[in-house]
Amino acid sequence: MASFCNIEKIIRGRVLFDEPLKKHTTFRIGGPARVWAEPIDPKDIKEIVSFAIDAAIPLEVIGNGSNLLVHDMGLNRIAISLSAPHFKRAKTEKDSIRVGAGLHISEMLEYCCQKGLSGLERLTGIPGTIGGALAMNGGDIGSNVEEVHTITKSGRERLFKQKDISFGYRRSDLEGFIITEAKLSVKQSTSVDVRALCKKHLDEKRATQDLGSLSAGCIFKNPEDIDLSAGELVESLGFKGKRCGGALVSEKHANFIVNSDGASFGDVMELIEMIRDKAKEERSVNLELEVKILG
Ligand SMILES: Cc1cc2nc3c(=O)[nH]c(=O)nc-3n(C[C@H](O)[C@H](O)[C@H](O)COP(=O)(O)OP(=O)(O)OC[C@H]3O[C@@H](n4cnc5c(N)ncnc54)[C@H](O)[C@@H]3O)c2cc1C
Questions:
Q1: Hey, which residues does 187 pair with through a beta bridge?
Q2: For the segment 161-185, what is each residue's pLDDT rounded down to a tens digit?
Q3: Does domain 86-207 have CATH number 3.40.50.1820?
Q4: How far apart are CA 262 and CA 246, in angstroms?
Q5: Where in the chain are the domains?
Q6: Which residues line ligand 1 (CB under 6 A)?
Q7: Distance separating alpha carbons of residues 117 and 263, to the nearest angstrom
Q8: Model pTM score
């Protein structure tokens, strides 16, 4: 079995050991990742995959950590971060843009504003990367997808064309692959119009969501079997403002739990379980998690 320290000799990108994941999640919660690796290109990713197979250690891709709740004990895994410049590129190709999976959505939208490319403005305010949005179909990014480049967990490159991928509500077939790049459809417009539309979406989001606090966005998916959003349901159950330790159900949007005061993983989980139990008992609703729990 490979020794963990050897990974530093194998890849060209930066490697850190016992890197605190609270530094890499918008919740600011999470213990250390045994290995934190920043590959510089797809070849480096393949080296990490082959190392992980030899060492029998699971891999976890971390984007901007904006949909993650990580255990305080951390992760006994290799966390891959696509933060190197190779994965943050953006380029225009006719009526599409080619973007690296590590590019932040706000950086992609700034690129679109500067070039006057329209069609992705509805993603404004989502604090994630392109890779995270594709894996989760955040902001329904799937409807712009033309192709997605990935590396499989056995280390092979695999190109998905739009027709090969099914995107659903906060899910896609790309989960489980390491997404490296995507081609997204856009339309020619003007910088002024694209910027105005982004501002409109951001204003709407600011009015309803708790964007200024430490959170992972919506905790629960909207339930299918009741005519209420998850936020409306949680509010109607009386949870707005409810606190467990440092975790608090947002006063602005009841589907947001915020880390208001050094919350632990356990504080957030306690609130989640209380809400789920009450939703089940009083409304017979099984609330499914939108946030991903790691560790
Ligand atoms: C204030 C706030 C507002 C939000 N608003 C919205 C919203 O309006 N709409 C919405 O959909 N979401 C929203 N979110 C949730 C979150 O921002 C999205 O789910 C986002 O797409 C996650 O991207 P990320 O890069 O942070 O992914 P992470 O949270 O790091 O990871 C999420 C999942 O994606 C996987 N992943 C990440 N990168 C890759 C990759 N390159 N290859 C393969 N898998 C990958 C991870 O393994 C993990 O399973 C919000 C979150 C916050 C904190």
A1: 118
A2: 999 999 999 999 998 999 999 999 9
A3: no
A4: 5
A5: 4-81, 86-207, 210-294
A6: 26, 60-68, 82, 101, 126-129, 131-133, 135-136, 138-139, 178-179, 209, 211, 215-217, 292
A7: 40
A8: 0.96
